[in-house]
Each structure stands twice: as structure tokens, then as C-alpha cells.
Amino acid sequence: MSSENYDIIVLGAGAAGLFSAIEAGKRGRSVCVIDHAKKPAEKVRISGGGRCNFTNVNTHPSRFISQNPHFCKSALKQYTQHDFIARVDQQGIKYHEKTLGQLFCDDSATEIIQMLLDDCAANNVEIRLSTEIIGVSKRDTEFLVQTSIGNMHCESLIVATGGLSIPKMGATPFAYELAKQFGLNIIDPRPGLVPFMFGGELLAEMSELSGVSVRARIDTGEIAFDEAMLFTHRGLSGPAALQASSYWLPGNEIEVNLAQRVDALAALKKGREEAPKKKLASVLETFLPSRLAQSIAEQTYASFRMADLSNAKLEEIAKRISAWRLKPVGTEGYRTAEVTIGGIDTNDLSSKTMEAKNVAGLFFIGEAVDVTGWLGGYNFQWAWSSGYVAGQNA
Ligand code: FDA
In this protein, which residues make up the domain named RsdA/BaiN/AoA(So)-like Rossmann fold-like (predicted)? Predict the structure, then answer.
């Protein structure tokens, strides 16, 4: 087996790894990217329903979850969403803003991958796919990376192997294990941006409503998200539920407002006044999707005419609509989670360079680090920004 030397080896050919390699390559450093997958940037390919929500024009540190909310500031400032948008423009990729500042390719996520691969080629970055990493060690100022295609040596090692989300796509705990080997701390990882699951009667109810989408506000007690919510065969999904899941801890309740834009009690009272002979469901249908209206009526006072519903009963129904308290039994877990919350403790990294404070030349970037964005292009922006910073300093 051969033995090769590089200035920098990047572990992981995802968004963060490729971006750091490009930036380091631009500085004239010799760079090799290693990945066990057959293809690079597979998560970019499937992201945003195949159109890659590649950044968010409203990127701001407050959109990121971390034990240290200040950590992400430096990287996000050194390489901003506007910098990435300028590169996408230069490539001629057409895109549009879908909602809430989220930028998606008009055509396909593969255009972003092609842009990254073009930049790798232009800056002499080598990419070794289908390559297993057997072990990493450091002697003096040099890292030895043992792989299935031979030993490699480098001055700087950038770890960009991501988190635990979607094991079927090749996610592994590699970054955490390597970090521990070098004495860095790990913030317990958990799935984020993941659908909620329910049990018992609630599950039966939600599964009946599977496919119904409603604009809802989900409050975790810490934060609330007002976006689309989707009933599924397992529970709740859609942007509002995914966002809330990143802040939810097992055992906690969430509060759902199914009619955020309407004063439910006032609407019910108005319905009673204007249509006293109507059944509850037909009044609920004026401000809720029909199947949801039927379901709420069935669980409360379906057989009553509006005229027969007392104020107390209307208050009870209004509460069921605007302050529905629910206890998820869990989430769908890493199988479907878009991201992993937690990871390499930011206390052990420099926010200016992404280098480990106690191991010169060792960098961690992207999702492996305890910085997780909201839904909406923030996670890729973190991959670009943290990758850029490591690429400048490795
Ligand atoms: P990423 O996981 O992308 O890359 C890690 C690489 O390391 C992979 O290529 C993997 O094969 C490799 N690897 C792992 N272990 C290894 C090992 N032991 N040996 C060798 N190689 C190893 N975000 C966003 O901003 N907008 C969006 O539209 C979406 N959409 C989306 C959809 C879905 C279905 C998912 C699952 C996720 C998203 N995301 C997203 C999140 C986004 O994909 C994610 O945050 C980034 O891909 C993280 O980039 P990284 O480069 O850090 O890790």
C-alpha cells in the first residue's frame, strides 16, 4: 500500500468538507478529501426535496441551537449567506425564495453539487470516495490517517463527517469518536428537525387525519413556531412540528394552536349567533380544514346544534383548538431526522478558526459540531461558514 502526504486531509465529502477543501485549495494547500460513500454530498442531493434549500437570506445567530449560542457568530460573519449567494449567482444557478427567506434551486440540488465539484477541480482538491477510515493518530506535528487505500499523512486534519441523522445514508459517530480520542468533550447528540410520534387515542386520532395540513403554532414552552403542520400516520410533522422537535425534550408537553390567525372563541360565539341551527362541525369548517373540523366536533359536541352550546362548552372547544396540550411519546429518531443536535462541544474549539483548542492542526466543522440550525437553509449555511473558516486556517 502506498503512503501519501498532503498539507490537509478532510474527512467527509459532504457540504462542509467539500467547502473547506475548496477554500484551503484556493490558498495553494494540497488537499485530499476522504469519504466512505460512493458519491460526494449525498445529503445535498436529497435536500430540500431535491432542490436544496442552500441558505437563508435571514441567517442570524439566533437561528442556531448550541450550548454556547455565541459560538456560531464568528464563522457566520466571516462567510455570510450573501457570500454564498454571490457564488451561486456566479455559477448561473437559478433559484427562488420559497418562504421565510429560504432559497431553493429552481431546477435541482445537483447544480450545487456540480458547483462544489467544479471548485474542487479548479483548486486541485483530490476526492477519494469509497474509502474507509481505519484510524487516525498524531505524532509531533503530523497526522497519520490509515485508510482502506493506504496510509496518508497531513499537517492539518479537518473532520467533517457530520452527525447521526439518516444512518441509511452513511451517517456514523466517527467525528464524536475521533473527538473523544483527542480529549474533546461531546454534548449528548439527539435527533432534531424530526416528526413527533404519539400513542394511544391521540395516535388513532392523528392517524385518521393523516395528510391534513394546517397552519399551526407549536409552543414547546421555550419557543413557539407558527408554520404549516401536517398530521401523519405516526403523529405530527411539517415545518412547525420539525422546528419544535429541535427544542423538545422527552417527557415534555407541547401546546398546539390550530387556528393561530383566528380568535376561536369569538368565531364560535359568532357562529352560534348567526347560525344557531347549524351543527358544530359546520361552524368549525369556516376556519379549520374540513376533516380536522369534523374530528374536533366528534371528540366534543358533534350532535349539538350551535344554539345548545353554552359559553362554558364553547370555551372548552376553543381551548381544544387554540391550546391543545399534547405529550409526544417520542420522535421518529435518526431514521428521519434532518439534523443532529449536540455534538463536539464548542468550548473545546476556537470559534474564529474551528481548530481544537488542545490539538494543533485538528479542526471540526459542519453538523458534527454542537451548532444546529433551524429548518430553512440554516444548516447548509453553517456547513459553508464553518467550512470556509477551517479552510482559511488549516
Ligand atoms: P454531511 O452529513 O452532509 O456529510 C458528512 C459526510 O461524511 C458524508 O458524505 C458521509 O458519507 C461521510 N462520513 C460519515 N461517516 C464517515 C466515516 N466513518 N468515514 C468516512 N466518511 C464518513 N439543510 C439545509 O440547510 N437545507 C435543506 O434543504 C436541508 N434538507 C435536508 C433534507 C434531509 C432529508 C436531510 C437528512 C438533511 C437536510 N438538511 C438540510 C441538513 C443538511 O443536509 C446537513 O445539515 C448538512 O448536510 C451537514 O453537512 P456536513 O457536511 O456537516 O455533513
Answer: 7-393
Q: Which helix (H) or strand (E) holds 228?
A: strand 224-231
Residues 59, 60, 63, 65, CA torsion sign: positive
pLDDT digits (tens, 9 = 90+) for 348-384: 999 999 999 999 999 999 999 999 999 999 999 999 9
Residues 142, 14 share a domain: yes
- Centre of ligand 1 from the C-alpha of residue 360, in Å: 26
Interface ipTM = 0.99
Q: Which of 43, 108, 136 to mutate to test the pocket of ligand 1 (most atoms within 8 A of CB)?
A: 43
Q: Do 274 and 224 belong together in one domain?
A: no
Structural domain including 135 reads: 3-189+340-393
Residues 85 and 162 in one domain: yes
User: Is 169 found in the same domain as 42?
Assistant: yes
Q: Looking at the structure, tell me whether residues 22 and 126 fall in a common domain.
A: yes
Mean pLDDT of the chain: 97
User: Domain check: are 67 and 106 in the same one?
Assistant: yes
Residue 3's pLDDT is 72
Number of domains into which the chain is organized: 3
Ligand 1 midpoint to CA 85 (Å): 20
Residues 302, 281: contact at Cβ < 8 Å?
yes
Whichever domain contains 239, its CATH number is 2.40.30.10
Question: What is the Å distance from ligand 1's center to 128 Cα?
Answer: 17
Please tell me the distance from the alpha carbon of residue 389 to that of residue 393, in angstroms, as a whole number: 6
Whichever domain contains 22, its CATH number is 3.50.50.60
Provide residues with CB under 6 Å of ligand 1: 12-17, 35-37, 42-43, 46-48, 52-53, 133, 160-162, 165-166, 170-172, 174, 338-339, 366-367, 377-380, 383
Q: Could you tell me which residues come within 8 angstroms of residue 4 by beta carbon, excluding any fewer than 6 positions away? A: 32, 150, 151, 152, 153
Task: Output the CA 354–ligand 1 centroid distance in Å.
Answer: 18
CA distance 339 to 319: 33
